[in-house]
């Protein structure tokens, strides 16, 4: 007990592998990664977690415990207050208190929803302003050029994939690890694919069986690949004219997905052939 109390004074974030607090450090790092998905930076999430697990602290105490620069720490504390997930006590020195995790997540979600509502209300106004300015580009007869766009974060990547699926007319093919497909499922991408007028097929890499969350879908359109050699590959192809190719998928250690969209046939064709080859080698789900 004395050893744990001594270690707690040092801080769980500094715990080494031989420390009794190491298992808690790993869990809190996972929490930190999840909070980043809600719009916090890594250091903002770290400060919130510290206050949530160590109780009310002054800014100097946060600086000393987390080893962060003083100016950055004050800026982060003010930012977390503005986000509504940290409050300041009327004391000297001022101590900062973290909102309970359930309330903090709810607050962050509601803030994002409000921001989206504001943007949605501005859509018509921006569109009208845009239409009020003439187009100055000179029309040419140039052949349509291949395009490429890099994207980071699940928000914009999944939004683009949904747009691809909604405009698909012939086929949609999806290849990914079970973690990728699970994220697609919870983002309603899988349901959208199989509700599409286009034919949808999917391959799960590094999987021995079909996950339970896919049992409602047509098993003839889903296959699994037991080998783990392709668990870092993930892509979605629409009508053989658009592709979303993940350069960092859900299995990447950073948990921060990074992808590339393109309409280049020179890129799409060989990857589509890889899908067809993998489809023949994979196992049916019955």
Can you walk me through this structure?
By secondary structure, the protein is an alpha+beta fold. It has 2 domains: 2-102, Winged helix-like DNA-binding domain superfamily/Winged helix DNA-binding domain (Arc Repressor Mutant, subunit A), CATH 1.10.10.10; 150-284, Endonuclease, Chain A. 47% of the residues lie in helices and 17% in strands. It is built from 10 helices and 11 strands. It has an 8-stranded mixed β-sheet, sandwiched between helices. Helix 2 (22-36) packs across helix 3 and helix 4 crosses helix 5. The protein starts with a helix and ends with a strand. Mean pLDDT is 85; it is low at 1-10.
Put the structure in a nutshell.
With 286 residues, this protein is an alpha+beta fold. The protein has helices at residues 2-10, 22-36, 42-54, 59-66, 70-82, 101-131, 154-166, 178-186, 189-195, 265-281, and strands at residues 57-58, 86-88, 95-98, 148-152, 171-177, 199-205, 222-225, 235-238, 242-248, 258-262, 283-284.
Radius of gyration: 24 Å
Mean pLDDT: 85
Number of strands: 11
Query: Can you tell me the CATH class of the largest domain?
Result: Alpha Beta
Poorly predicted tracts of residues: 1-10
CATH topology of the largest domain: Endonuclease, Chain A
Structural category? alpha+beta
Q: How many domain regions? A: 2
